[in-house]
Amino acid sequence: MSELRQHIDEAVASIRARTQSNPRIGIILGTGLGGLAAEITREVEIDYGDVPHFPVSTVESHHGKLLFGTLAGKNVVAMQGRFHFYEGYSMQQITFPVRVMKFLGVDTLLISNAAGALNPLFRKGDVMLIVDHINLLGDNPLIGPNDETLGPRFPDMSEAYSRALLSMAEQVALDLKIGIRRGVYVAMSGPNLETRAEYRFLRFTGADAVGMSTIPENIVAVHMGMRVFGVSIMTDECFPDALKPVTLEEVIAVANTAEPKMTAIMKELVGRL
Ligand code: HPA
């Protein structure tokens, strides 16, 4: 058995000692987007620090907890607080909780994040459903020996974001009368925001939004055969010829303002799964 698999099994055993909950839906909430967590009727909360091999969050705007409970009548497990590459965690550490979720029975992963808008038609506060991604993090969580009990050496990425979940979410948005965008998400390591030249370059790559997360979790989820749905909230406008300085406070403020739209879509989507 691989060391990774051993660590997963130990983490799962420790969680199983605290809850018998069998969620099939996993949720990872992004910066300033924790409001969905408040909608979860909680059964058990487990601090990351109490789960063997879990990394512990460092960014103050994140609370590190696994929330087990129900959302729209469905069993879910949510990560309140996620790990970023720029914090110094390895890709394996960042994605470890996704591996654990899979072994708890999760087959559908919903991810949110705050991102900068590269598409000039997008505006601050817009909600973008992620249709695909471009990994420019400069690393990959699958590098190293492959444990075949977890997934294949060369995972197919032709449907990194589930088409079925995307069309369900589009219908949800239509029914709730919430305007949405669709687009390609590109991830950079950060922690600095990008230069004008980089934003111009990122737009040329075909991306509509840029952030610093989500892709490692997506890759590991796809590796293990999970289906993934992702949403980005546009927190700033990354238009190279009209760029204004941005602060973390502004990013969080915009995320908080736009959050109810995303929370409504996610909740209704969960109800229809
Ligand atoms: N760049 C990278 N990540 C981000 C941005 C950005 O402009 N905005 C929010 N997350």
In short:
A 5-stranded mixed β-barrel has the order 5-8-7-6-9. The mean pLDDT is 94. The chain has 7 helices and 9 strands, in the order αβαβββαββαβαβαβα.
Describe this structure in words.
- Helix 1 packs across helix 3 (91-104), helix 3 (91-104) crosses helix 6 and helix 4 (163-176) packs across helix 7 (248-272).
- The protein has seven helices and nine strands, in the order H-E-H-E-E-E-H-E-E-H-E-H-E-H-E-H.
- It has one domain (3-272): Nucleoside phosphorylase domain (Rossmann fold), CATH 3.40.50.1580.
- The protein has helices spanning 3-16, 35-38, 91-104, 163-176, 196-204, 215-223, 248-272, and strands at 25-28, 41-47, 65-71, 74-80, 108-117, 127-135, 181-187, 209-211, 227-237.
- The chain has a five-stranded mixed β-barrel with strand order 5-8-7-6-9.
- By secondary structure, it is of the alpha/beta class.
- The radius of gyration is 18 Å and the shape is globular.
- Bound molecules: hypoxanthine (HPA).
- Hypoxanthine (HPA) binds next to strand 5, strand 8 and strand 9.
